[in-house]
Write a structure and sequence with these properties.
The structure is a single chain. It contains 5 helices and no strands. The chain is elongated and about 40 Å long. Helix content is 56%, strand content 0%. With 90 residues, the protein is mainly alpha-helical.
């Protein structure tokens, strides 16, 4: 019996959604395929597909490899809840 992977939180605005959307959007802007991104990063194309669909939760190490393969820098910030809520309301 095959076990279906649990989907992560893909609610728009969630950190998970932002990460998956950013990966897909950056790849599309570079006009590269998942296969090309896999070649650049050494990450299996199937895993990249799972990341973009939200069925795989990436490690920090994996995110760093993806950023490098996309010619980007990974930047993570912690924002006070009040500040994040205020930004959402504007």
């Amino acid at each position: 019996m095959s076990k279906k992977p649990a989907r992560v939180n893909l609610e728009e605005g969630s950190p998970e959604y932002s990460v998956f959307h950013a990966i897909h959007e950056a790849r599309e802007k570079l006009n590269i395929t998942q296969t090309e991104l896999a070649r650049r990063t050494g990450i299996d194309q199937g895993d990249i597909s799972k990341l973009e669909r939200g069925t795989r939760n990436p490690s920090l190490k994996l995110l760093k490899r993806l950023a490098q393969g996309l010619g980007m820098e990974l930047k993570i910030t912690f924002v006070p809840i009040e500040q994040a809520e205020e930004a959402e309301n504007h």
